[in-house]
UniProtKB/TrEMBL annotation:
Position of sequence motif Histidine triad motif: 108-112
Organism: Acetobacter lambici
Record domain HIT: where: 14-124
Protein name, as recorded: Histidine triad nucleotide-binding protein
InterPro entries, per database record: Histidine_triad_CS, Histidine_triad_HIT, HIT-like, HIT-like_sf
């Protein structure tokens, strides 16, 4: 069910539980700022979720309230992950869903990194 992407952060959302180690994930990358792990229902041969370690409800929240350094580090990490996964040669897609119309389901800001093969024309 889609969320609004606004309002207070829900500490019980599934990505908060993953960050606390209460629910397992298949990590592909971690640094001071982000954790990246495989999407449980991949929509592409490579489908990784990149999440900030700090609590932001959506891109709306992240883009308004995160310090500039954190925004830069999260975006730089996304590029580094795509590079490390070997996605640069043939390209990839990086998207975020924010709020009800987008179908955002998990109320913790995340980037979807998809690649590993030709992707359907956007939007899917
Ligand atoms: P969104 O619709 O943009 O909020 O995307 C949420 C994504 O989280 C979906 O692609 C789900 O497949 C994925 N997802 C949900 N639960 C898990 C989980 N426990 N581990 C990994 N990915 C998950």
């Amino acid at each position: 069910m889609a969320v609004t992407g606004k309002g207070p952060y829900d500490q019980q959302n599934i990505f908060a539980k993953i960050l606390r180690g209460e629910i397992p994930c298949k990590p592909v990358f971690e640094n001071e700022w982000v954790l990246a792990f495989e999407d449980i229902a991949p929509k592409a041969p490579v489908h990784v979720l990149i999440i900030p370690k700090k609590p932001y409800v959506s891109f709306m929240d992240f883009s308004k309230t995160a310090p500039a350094e954190e925004i830069a580090e999260v975006m730089r990490s996304a590029g580094q992950i795509a590079h490390t996964l070997g996605l640069e040669e043939n390209g990839y897609r990086l998207i975020t869903n924010a709020g009800t119309n987008s179908g955002q389901e998990v109320p913790h800001f995340h980037l979807h990194l998809m690649g590993g093969g030709p992707l359907p024309a956007f939007p899917q």
